[in-house]
Specification:
Residues 26-127 form the Rieske domain. The protein folds into 2 domains: 27-137, Rieske [2Fe-2S] iron-sulphur domain (Rieske Iron-sulfur Protein, 3-layer Sandwich); 146-360, Naphthalene 1,2-dioxygenase Alpha Subunit, Chain A, domain 1 (Alpha-Beta Complex), CATH 3.90.380. It contains 8 helices and 19 strands. The chain has helices at 4-7, 165-173, 177-181, 189-193, 218-224, 297-307, 315-332, 345-371, and strands at 10-11, 27-31, 40-44, 47-53, 59-63, 77-79, 82-84, 91-92, 98-100, 118-121, 124-127, 157-161, 196-200, 204-214, 230-239, 243-252, 266-278, 281-290, 338-339. It binds FE2/S2 (inorganic) cluster and fe (ii) ion. FE2/S2 (inorganic) cluster binds at residues 66, 68-69, 71, 85, 87-90.
Length: 372
């Protein structure tokens, strides 16, 4: 692609009531380390959910509203593996079934709260907020880089953002923003100068950018530890509906990295699982893992501090300023569309896949709605 003009397209803003996220998908709900034997409320895809770890280690996910008078169950407490409502003492087991009612022996068989399918994998707790009958473990996103074995990183950082989750997908699928948003750190003119390819499958879209024979940015120069020009790569893959994995790194120029031999270089991966909380807020589970200097704990810490730090000057802080301002602007100007450039090609594929999942879901629920 050579001309922004050629591929510019008008995208009309969706009406407010149009769903922006599919429900029939696995979404990261929490890092594993966040969920203990305690009630943890979280809003996932517009649903109020309470999570807790049972005594056998498995994670339970219940609707966070008591069957009786809807008090959030997270305001109650755990009694073994059961949840006691903090208002009138109804007790629910991890399967959502009521096991105790105060001042009566007979338990109404319909007294239950909804439960959600949960899978704990790759150091994350994943939830399926849609139809449980469709929850297929084979559709879990691939996040294996976070398993803590071959790739090393802190394990997981959580952020809550006031923006549509798709804005983060857009942000990660187009790293030309680094040149402007992250000028002075990972930004580099070569990113905007380099051409890129976009490929896709049914559920993934990949943006591949090689920057050959360039000066390495400071982070990569330091970690490569070899003087001279480098070949730099950014291979960013979206997995529908909301996971992005970025394979990034550098190798000394001409040592065959582009052809598949990265042995002379240094390689990292940023891992992003982005989960809608509501249409305008989201959860962002982030990590950066690497295969170099794996025992260097100070480096692990410094990578996290580069992302977010007490001074609010980390890379993440720079992104969040843009993303939340963008969300406010969308709400201020609901009739203004987005326009697309060549650089948006990867994000457009991601959005097409999200739209297709939404259309499938609307079609599946249409007969049921018509029959009501
Ligand atoms: S609201 Fe939960 S027991 Fe009454
Ligand atoms: Fe960024």
């Amino acid at each position: 692609m050579t001309s922004a003009q050629k591929t510019s397209a008008r995208v009309n803003a969706a009406p407010a009531e149009t769903p922006t996220f599919p429900l029939n998908a696995w979404y990261a709900a929490a890092w594993s380390h966040e969920i203990e034997h305690a009630l943890a409320p979280r809003t996932i895809c517009g649903k109020e959910i309470v999570l807790y770890r049972r005594t056998d280690g498995a994670v339970a996910a219940l609707e966070n509203a008591c069957w009786h008078r809807l008090l959030p169950l997270s305001l109650g407490w755990l009694q073994g593996d059961e949840v006691v409502c903090g208002y009138h003492g109804l007790v629910f087991d991890a399967g959502g079934r009521c096991t105790h009612m105060p001042a009566q022996e007979t338990i109404n068989p319909s007294a239950c709260v909804r439960t959600y399918p949960v899978i704990e994998r790759h150091r994350l707790v994943w939830i399926w907020p849609g139809d449980p009958a469709l929850a297929d473990p084979a559709e879990m996103p691939d996040f294996h880089w976070n398993d803590g074995t071959e790739w090393i990183g802190e394990g997981g950082t959580y952020y809550g953002l006031r923006c549509d989750y798709r804005l983060i997908v857009d942000n990660l699928m187009d790293l030309t923003h680094e040149t402007y948003v992250h000028a002075g750190s990972i930004g580099h003119d070569a990113i905007t100068a380099a051409s890129f390819d976009v490929t896709h499958t049914d559920r993934t879209a990949t943006v591949t950018r090689w920057m050959l024979g360039i000066d390495p940015p400071p982070f990569w120069a330091r970690n490569l530890g070899k003087p001279g020009l480098v070949d730099r790569w950014q291979i960013i893959t979206f997995q529908a509906p909301s996971v992005v994995v970025g394979d990034v790194g550098v190798a000394p120029v001409g040592t065959g990295a582009q052809q598949g031999d990265r042995s002379q270089g240094v390689n990292g991966c940023f891992l992003a699982a982005i989960t809608p909380a509501t249409a305008t807020t989201c959860h962002y589970f982030w990590n950066f893992v690497r295969t170099f200097k794996k025992d260097d704990e100070a480096l692990t810490r410094s990578i996290n501090l580069a992302h977010v730090n007490a001074e609010g000057k980390g890379l993440y802080d720079q992104d969040v300023t843009v993303l939340e301002a963008q969300q406010r602007a969308i709400e201020t100007h609901p009739r203004l569309p987005f326009y697309n450039l060549n650089i948006d090609a990867g994000a457009l594929w991601a959005r097409r896949m999200i739209d297709r999942l939404l259309a499938d879901e609307a079609q599946r629920s249409a007969p049921a709605a018509a029959a009501e």
